[in-house]
TrEMBL record:
Presence of keyword Coiled coil: yes
Source domain of life: Eukaryota
Gene3D superfamilies linked: 1.10.287.1490
Keyword terms of this UniProt record: Coiled coil
Biased composition (Basic and acidic residues): 12-32, 58-77, 84-93
Native source species: Stentor coeruleus
Keyword Membrane: no
Protein name listed in UniProt: Uncharacterized protein
């Protein structure tokens, strides 16, 4: 409340100097004595800094201590000034009294003060007393100032009287000088007429030169238009070159893809050809074995024939003996012992017959011979198949070689055409540079002419300004020559208008020439830019040739490049693993902060924070699972990369250990998430469990890699 009241009192104190006081209120206030009054805390802060009081002191102290006496003409003005200062001091007193009344009304409205406020008010009362003392001193100074001013005014009156006498003497002297000046002025007018005639002659010459400049300007405009058209043509040619380069790049990319496919087919055919050589060697061995076996089989077949003859004789004898025994047994009685012996012999003959005539009497050599014949037939069929497959591969290789020759010839022809066009462009650029140099030399000559003309015009303008100054001086002193001077002024004004128009026209010409110079500079810069673009095109062509040579050289050293690619992939994986670890640390720190917030329990909306924490943990879990899936996919990508001969199972074990280190922060994995995000883990052995540990996942990955 006290602050608000003090603010209102400040506003009233600011508005009080603008307010006009009534004479009745002034009379009432003049009766009251000036005594120190207790003021509020906020009021006295602004009272010593009142801008009205120091302004009075400044006005008093800034007066000249030794003023000159005023003249008779300024006497009434000085009296009026002294009266104004007295009224100003009275206004100050009335303002102070009105503010005291405002303070009294505020004291009645305010509440009883505390001890601190009383102390502050007493301190501010002392400040007000000091200000009252300063006001008394100012009044005394004002009285002394008035007395000094009266004395100064008397001295100034006497000095002004002496000045009037001196001025009358000067007047008589000036009149004598005036007649002399009139004669001089007439002579100068005659000189001005002569200069005017000269200026008119110069104007005519200037007009002729301006017309010449216009004609030259039109010719330059035409030349600039031609230059702009040439630049447009150059831009179109460069655009066509860009299109040609793009087409060449596309063709080269297609050729590279064709080269890669042909390289793959070439390597496959080489592998097959090496296999064919091995097969041919083995076939030759088998043919030798077959020939040896045939010779042996022929030898054995002769022996077998002999054995078959002997076997047939023995078999006939056995059958004959059996028939004879049966006949003998029919005639011999059953009780006889000879019958038993004959029956026993019959059984023995029958046994020998069964043993000696099995189908399995074929020798092992016949079995081996049949097996060898089957193998020979198989290998002959394979040789025929390989020969049939080798023929189209040879045809494809011949076709690719023909294509390469055609593409090389086309590429060389395109390069030759490009070099020819570049040479023509260079010749055109040289001619264009020469034209630009000629234009610049002409521009410099014309600029020098314009500078000389402007220098002449500046000299004429300087002379005109001098004559105007002389005319202005004679106007004040000459009354009789006013008519002639007015006529001369009108003539000069007309000449000024004409010359100003011509100056404006010359300035416009200068601006236009500056614009043309700037456009020429811009065109020159564009020309150099396009020249640099042409150089870049040359560089790209050389780079393309290098890339073609590199592609041809890369056929031999492809395994080394594969190893370099594997190293690059490992480096990228290491960098991305570091980024993943940084993200993990950020997620962990956020989780710790959330736990701390949960444990503190300071905020009332704990339920909302818990919901936000759960959402954050879910989102962090999703992020972690996606990061794990990315690392596993990268591992499979490295394992799926074509291996070099130097790699071993130990390298795969080291890679698995590294993957385990990367996935240390994960304890349990969701099988569905892994199967959705990692395509190589979509196998049946993971479907048995909903979740899987880190060790189980590593074993599964090692199985997939080994498979």
């Amino acid at each position: 409340m006290i602050g608000k009241k003090s603010a209102t009192s400040n506003e009233q104190s600011k508005k009080s100097p603008e307010r006009k006081l009534d004479p009745k209120s002034q009379a009432k206030d003049s009766k009251k004595p000036i005594t120190p009054i207790k003021t509020p805390a906020s009021k006295t802060n602004h009272e010593p800094n009142n801008p009205n009081v120091p302004t009075v002191t400044k006005e008093i102290h800034e007066k000249d201590p030794n003023p000159q006496k005023p003249s008779g003409h300024d006497k009434s003005h000085s009296n009026h000034k002294g009266h104004h200062e007295l009224s100003y001091s009275e206004e100050l007193e009335n303002k102070i009294k009105s503010r005291k009344r405002i303070l009294e009304s505020l004291e009645e409205q305010t509440k009883p003060f505390t001890n601190d406020m009383v102390l502050e008010l007493s301190a501010r009362d002392s400040i007000i007393e000091e200000q009252n003392k300063e006001l008394i001193q100012l009044r005394s100074k004002l009285k002394e100032y008035k007395k000094n001013k009266d004395k100064e005014k008397d001295a100034q009156l006497q000095a002004e009287k002496q000045k009037i006498v001196d001025l009358e003497n000067e007047k008589s002297q000036l009149e004598t000088k005036l007649y002399i000046a009139i004669d001089k002025h007439r002579n100068e007018i005659q000189k001005m007429d002569e200069e005017k005639s000269r200026a008119e002659a110069l104007q005519e010459t200037m007009m002729e030169e301006i017309e010449l400049l216009r004609a030259q300007k039109e010719s330059k405009d035409e030349e600039l238009q031609n230059v702009v058209a040439d630049v447009k043509k150059l831009s179109e040619i460069i655009h066509q070159f860009k299109k040609l380069n793009e087409d060449l790049n596309e063709k080269i990319e297609k050729q590279n893809t064709d080269y890669e496919e042909m390289n793959v087919k070439y390597y496959e055919s080489e592998v097959k050809s090496s296999n064919i050589n091995d097969v041919e060697n083995s076939l030759q061995d088998y043919i030798r074995i077959y020939q040896q076996s045939e010779s042996r089989a022929n030898m054995l077949s002769d022996e077998l024939r002999k054995l078959h003859i002997i076997y047939d004789d023995i078999q006939g004898f056995c059958s004959f003996s059996e028939e004879q025994l049966e006949k003998a047994l029919e005639h011999i009685p059953n009780d006889n012992g000879a019958r038993k012996i004959l029956s026993h012999l019959k059984t023995e003959f029958s046994k020998k017959k069964k043993i000696e005539i099995p189908e399995s009497q074929e020798s092992e050599k016949d079995i081996k011979i049949s097996e060898l014949t089957e193998k020979l037939n198989k290998y002959s069929l394979e040789i025929k198949k390989l020969e049939n497959s080798y023929k189209p591969l040879n045809e494809q290789l011949n076709g690719t070689n023909d294509l390469l020759k055609k593409l090389k010839s086309e590429h060389m022809s395109s390069i030759e055409s490009l070099t020819k066009t570049i040479k023509t462009l260079q010749d055109y650029n040289d001619t264009f540079k020469a034209d630009l140099a000629n234009l610049r030399s002409e521009n410099t000559k014309k600029d020098s002419k314009i500078a000389a003309m402007t220098h002449k015009l500046n000299g004429i303008e300087e002379k005109r300004t001098k004559t105007e100054e002389k005319i202005k001086k004679f106007k004040d002193t000459l009354a009789t020559m006013e008519k002639e001077l007015n006529e001369f002024k009108t003539r000069n004004a007309q000449q000024k208008a004409i010359i100003n128009d011509r100056n404006g026209h010359i300035i416009n010409l200068e601006k236009q020439s500056a614009k043309y110079a700037s456009t020429i500079q811009v065109l020159h810069e564009e020309f150099w830019k396009k020249d640099t673009q042409v150089i870049k095109v040359k560089k790209t062509l050389t780079l393309l040739q290098k890339s073609i040579n590199d592609a041809n050289s890369e056929r031999g050293n492809s395994p080394t490049k594969k190893a370099e690619k594997i190293e690059k992939l490992n480096k990228e994986l290491h960098e991305k693993d570091q980024k993943i670890q940084i993200l993990k640390e950020m997620i962990r720190s956020n989780q710790i902060q959330l736990k701390d917030k949960k444990g503190s329990g300071l905020s009332p909306d704990t339920s909302m924070q818990e919901i936000g924490a759960e959402k954050f943990t879910k989102s962090s879990g999703d992020v972690m699972s996606s990061l794990a899936a990315k690392t596993i996919n990268k591992f499979f990508a490295i394992c799926g990369f074509p291996k070099s001969s130097s790699e071993s199972p130990g390298d795969i074990q080291r890679m698995l250990k590294k993957l385990k280190q990367d996935l240390k922060s994960y304890t349990v994995f969701n099988v569905k998430d892994l199967q959705n995000s990692v395509p190589k883990l979509q196998n049946s052995f993971l479907d048995s469990k909903p979740n899987i540990s880190l060790d189980e996942l590593i074993t599964a990955i090692s199985r997939i890699v080994k498979a």
